Amino acid sequence: MKSLKNHISLIIALFTVLASVQIYVAVDRTIAAYESHLKNDYSVIVVANKAFTPKEFTTMSSMIERSEPISTAQVLERLKGEMSEKNLALLKLTLPKFYRIYLNRFPTPNEINNLQKKLQKNTAIERVEGFSQTHDTVYKLMLLFKDVVQVFSIAIAAVTSLLILKEMRLWQFQHAERMNIMALFGAPVWLRSAVLFRLAIVDAIIATLILCFSFFIIDYYGILTLPLKEIGINVQLFNFVNDALRSLAISLGISIALTFTIVMFHSEEE
To answer: What is the pTM of this model?
Structure first.
């Protein structure tokens, strides 16, 4: 019963580390998907005193994906009853040209400033509106959330690794008699500690399977994906090939490394 308790403790500890890493990966993917979503909605408004072709805009900056003119017909339609046809025709000729520019990625605040400067170098462009204040707020909130999750994941991984080290130390005490007998018969360190490595590897595999099953449940019932889809974000939180293999590698790496640390520490004491 005590041995089973130790196994469960190690599996939970490893699962916690894997879950914290996967949550960070999922948040990073969600933010990337949200950036793509914002990129499609975000645009820069350009006011010019002459007509521009889409190709002329794309040659100004590699960030510009496409552009489209903004029609002034609605404005002129509203003024029809207030102005004569002659004045309306004159106003139509003197009105500046408005363009909406779409970018090939969601820009950083510095990239927006640089883009505005590049566009304004053209003497025919009177004004460039990048909505930098709103953009800066959204972008900084996204980065702050990502940084908080990263720090949180690192802290959990560090604390949990200490707990795993403690559990493995208890394993060593439980198998100390067997290991000492094997040492008397001249067994090498790796052979004496084989049982510790075997237990660590088995628990690492079990922890990875539990993680995969947990995210399968989350994905199957749409616990997180459905709320994200409601705001236009379609993202795969867990890849059952790449993420599972990475989680298994992390779990095995932590287990074997900490077991090796315990074994070497014990051999030095001898």
So the answer is: 0.74
